[in-house]
Specification:
This protein is mostly beta strands. The chain is built from two helices and 16 strands. Strands 1-2-3-4-5-6-7-8-9-10-11-12-13-14-15-16 form a 16-stranded antiparallel sheet.
Length: 354
């Protein structure tokens, strides 16, 4: 961990605390809208600053069964000249019989990866995408549905090591349109900070050659998480997830450590494979109505053709939580994670890792 990352994390904590106190006062009359700093000090994105807004609402005020629907807008820029913007919506309709998700991310990430070469692999990745998903309740907590995705990825190597990285992992500009079939189970008592229940999904993705520049490919993702109240305001969260892609899958579809909450502490893109299996455990605590903390750890494997002990990785870490809004259990999360080979990173978000 370098000094600038540590200083950034301290400033982030102080800034977040001051802002969230003001937010709580502003929400005394209307508690359905949350604004927070979008702060980043992650290994992949760099030290960034922006804003995130969350709007919680009920499409039908008479619907007392559905969880609140959410519209999220985010914009962020980092010291690596990276940026991310997005507009996302999750809608719970007709007493939670229907769950609709829509999203439009746009961004650029400048990566500098340590991949065993004399110099870091430097390259730029620009992307945009559209995601539409609809799930229908089958029975009880079971849902099934479809997801449509269209995404454009463009890459530009900044040095010879970056070009070598492109050749090693078949990194190339690509557009992919895919259709996914989903089966999910959700008995959580809350969407953002569960204290009990379980969540799991199985997603099979198919991209036909007509809509994928890299050719026809498939991907399978499986995820299961459970949440257990040990004592009052202390939660044990467990997660097991895996992913596998076919040979022709584009680079952005391949599993990589450190992305999407998988084994925090690793830089996305440095450890890449065709198959992954990850386990994580997190102990979440609330000390007061405003402040809490978490300790976490995990391990797993990521490999290409065959698995060996060299494909195993682990992590551990801790973080603080600042409760932004009690009604929807919105937390401001600041985590520090450590992996193998001096890998580490800070993570700042308004949602839990899983």
């Amino acid at each position: 961990m370098n000094k600038s990352s540590l200083l950034f994390a301290i400033i982030s904590t102080l800034f977040a605390g001051n802002l969230l106190f003001a937010q709580e006062k502003a929400d005394e009359k209307q508690r359905s809208f949350v604004v927070a700093p979008a702060l980043s000090s992650s290994p992949g994105f760099g030290n960034g600053l922006g804003a995130v807004g969350l709007y919680f609402f009920k499409p039908n005020k008479q619907d007392e069964v559905s969880p609140p629907s959410t519209i999220t807008a985010v914009g962020m820029y980092s010291d690596t000249d990276s940026y991310f913007t997005g507009l996302f919506g999750k809608f719970h309709l007709q007493e939670d019989q229907w769950r609709i998700i829509a999203g439009m991310p746009v961004g650029k990430v400048n990566s500098s990866l340590n991949v065993g070469a004399p110099e870091t692999a430097n390259f730029e990745n620009k992307f945009w995408g559209v995601v539409l998903e609809a799930q229908r309740k089958i029975t009880g907590p079971w849902y099934t549905g479809l997801r449509l995705t269209s995404i454009q990825q463009n890459y530009n190597a900044k040095n010879l090591a970056g070009q070598a990285y492109f050749e090693a992992f078949d990194v190339e500009d690509t557009h992919a349109g895919s259709l996914s079939a989903l089966l999910s189970y959700d008995s959580r008592d809350n969407q953002r900070y569960p204290e009990s229940g379980s969540y799991g999904d199985t997603i099979f993705t198919y991209a036909p050659a007509e809509f994928s520049d890299s050719g026809e490919y498939t991907k399978l993702d499986v995820n299961a998480a459970s949440f257990h109240t040990i004592v009052h305001d202390q939660i044990l969260a467990l997660q097991l997830k895996g992913s596998t892609v076919s040979d022709d899958a584009p680079y952005f579809e391949k599993p990589t450590l450190g992305s999407r909450g998988d084994l925090r502490g690793y830089t996305p893109g440095e450890i890449v494979g065709d198959h992954s299996l990850i386990f994580q455990a997190e102990y979440r605590m609330r000390f007061t109505k405003l402040f809490g903390a978490a300790i976490f750890g995990g391990g797993g494997g990521i490999w290409e053709d065959s698995f060996s002990s060299e494909d195993l990785y682990w992590n551990y870490g801790a973080g603080i939580r600042i409760r932004m809004q009690e009604e929807n259990r919105v937390n401001f999360r600041i985590d520090y994670a450590v992996g193998e080979d001096d890998q580490n990173g800070w993570y700042v978000s308004v949602s839990e890792a899983f």
